[in-house]
Design a protein that fits this description.
The chain is α+β, with helices and mostly antiparallel strands. The chain has helices at about 10-15, 30-50, 135-145; strands at about 55-60, 65, 70, 80-85, 110, 160-165. It is flat. The chain starts with 8 loop residues before the first helix and ends with a strand. This is Neuroligin-4, X-linked-like.
């Protein structure tokens, strides 16, 4: 017959006193618990002391820009990335087929440069129709990585991506 463990008043009193019914001391666990509490406190302090600096921010002549941090690999330190920064007015209307013109307006709000802007319109290769006979394996692998970035295309595509190593 299977016996169930029962908690008795004696076990409860022993736990409060610092021992268990098995005779082990609850004090043996205290250094580990204190170390765990210390690590959690340090983590809380480190996260809480970031001061809201989750995003890098720079001031440009066209207004403030907010980027994001990237961590390319374990061996490369953090990189500040400012994605989709407008470098010229949209090529629409009278500006179509003309040389790029510096942005004419300054934005007072913070420009969100944390996501890629649209890519310029281009014909995307079809890699589903027997691509191995027409291109190398490396080229096919490169295109498979590139294609998700080409799903968002627009004629208003005069944007830069700027990457800055941190110190």
């Amino acid at each position: 017959m299977r016996q169930h463990a029962r908690v008795t008043a004696a076990d409860a009193a022993a736990t409060v006193a610092g021992t268990t019914s098995a005779g082990t001391s609850a004090a043996a666990w205290r250094p580990h618990a204190l170390l765990l509490l210390l690590l959690l406190a340090l983590l809380f302090i480190a996260v809480g002391s970031s001061g809201g600096n989750e995003y890098p921010r720079v001031e440009t002549r066209n207004g403030p820009v907010r980027g994001r941090y990237l961590y390319p690999s374990p061996t490369v330190r953090r990189v500040e990335a400012f994605l989709g920064i407008r470098y010229a007015d949209a090529p629409v209307g009278s500006l179509r087929f003309m040389p790029p013109r510096n942005p004419s307006t300054r934005h007072d709000d913070v420009w969100n440069a944390t996501v890629f802007a649209p890519a310029c319109p281009q014909k995307v290769p079809d890699i589903r129709n027997d691509p191995l006979t027409r291109m190398t394996h490396d080229r096919l692998r490169y295109l498979r990585r590139l294609l998700p970035l080409l799903t968002n295309q627009d004629e208003d595509c005069l944007f830069l991506n700027v990457y800055v190593p941190t110190t």
